[in-house]
Amino acid sequence: MNPWPLIHSSLSRYRLSAIAFVLLVAAGVSLSVAIVSQERALRAGSARAADRFDLIVAAPGSRTDALLTGVFLRPGSGSLLKPALTAALLNDHTAEFVSPLAFGDSYRGEPVIGIVSALVAHLSGPLAEGRIFAARNEAVVGAASLLKLGQSFHPAHGAHPGKDQAEFDHDADPHGVTLTVVGRMQPTGSPWDRAVTVPVELVWSLHDLPAGHAPPSQQLGPPFDPAYTPGIPAAVVRTDNLENAYKLRRAYTSSEAMAFFPAEALIQLYSVLGDMRQLVGLLALVTQALVLLSIVASVFILFRLLMPQFVTLRALGATRRYIFAIAWGFTSLLIGVGVVFGLAGSYVLSFAISAWLARLTGVTLEPTLGQGEFMLALSVLAVGLALATLPAWRMQRQTLSVAMKTY
Among residues 30, 21, 19, which one has the least CA distance to residue 344? Predict the structure, then answer.
């Protein structure tokens, strides 16, 4: 006998309860799979953001802090390289170019960073709009900046995140200089898409520091005059080949400086993410187990409503195997549909979380569902199908006489 007509009839009669069960399974699967996929998306996105940074030189301290400051533009509290070392580094001809990173200003939440023009060309390639800055009062903005080509603005001391124009004008402490946007970079998939890049000489002069060149020179970029070069928090070094990269790494690793490849610091971050992934994975499995157990417990309750139908079937001569097939099929179908909808929901949820994280960190994330996510969903399905045998087994274990007296 075919159990499907009775399963379909039961689902139709108790469709609201069935939908609730499906949504419960789908929610658990979606959340677990989305969290696992985000961990991989964060790894890929952060590696892609750091890919264009060959070598970073900073004052001795935490590599992770220097990475977060130089690549991901997070505010740091590290010390500065000594001026003499800064000048030697910026003028080192072993590198293709060395760009200082000068922080401290912003415009409506967008960091204003002092660099050399070579770094703009390296990060962006051909600009999306305009040209590279050629004077100290010019700026090139990232692809996601709110500033428009040709727009003038006043940078301000410190960071002012989340400010609209009126709040920024009221609360900020603007410098007495007007900058004009002359170019926009191509998207980089990194926090630099929100940055406002200006000549480093401007940032130095705005903070009452030597501007890298003997006054009244308006020169931009190298060579920098050692007598007029201040200390910097970090520098980005671009090399022609791997041999020069290692040579520079050795040369600037001392008691006064540290030089490292961004991948070295990313590995440390990934190790932390790996520990977090194991913890999140364990929590996801526990969550799934609780969801499945709650589904089975709820189905036990629902089956009490269906019991009169099963008793009638038994009285009409239905075998225990047929009763088992109906009960198991009913529960399995709910769990199977829930897992399918959960996978679909996890894809949507992954993009929603990625969009939120991208706004928060500036790192472009591209979530995907890989083998690990599908294996997690399949494991939930397998456990669910196994647990579905419990109410089915209980159904067919009761004798007809006992079932008729009870129900």
Answer: 30
Phi/psi at 56 (5° precision): -120, 135
Q: What is the pLDDT along the chain (407 residues), one digit of tens a residue?
A: 677 777 777 778 778 878 888 888 888 788 778 877 777 787 778 888 888 888 999 988 888 888 888 888 887 667 889 999 999 999 999 999 999 999 888 888 899 999 999 999 999 889 999 999 999 999 999 998 999 999 999 888 866 444 444 444 444 556 678 999 999 999 988 889 999 999 999 999 988 899 889 888 889 989 999 999 999 999 999 998 888 999 999 999 988 899 999 888 888 777 765 556 666 667 666 766 776 677 667 667 666 666 666 666 666 666 777 777 777 887 788 888 888 888 888 888 888 888 888 777 777 777 777 777 787 778 778 877 777 777 667 665 655 555 555 54
Residue 325: which residues within 8 A CB-CB, separation 6 or more? 3, 392
**Helix, strand, or coil here: 41?**
helix
Q: How many other C-beta atoms can be found within 10 angstroms of the C-beta atom of residue 107? A: 23
C-alpha distances (whole Å) from 161 to each of 108, 152, 171, 172, 194 are 6, 19, 11, 11, 12
What are the beta bridge partners of residue 236?
A: 56, 99
Distance CA 354, CA 381 (A): 26
CA atoms of 261 and 243, how far apart (whole Å): 13
Residue type, 86: T
Handedness of CA 364, 71, 115, 222 (dihedral sign): negative
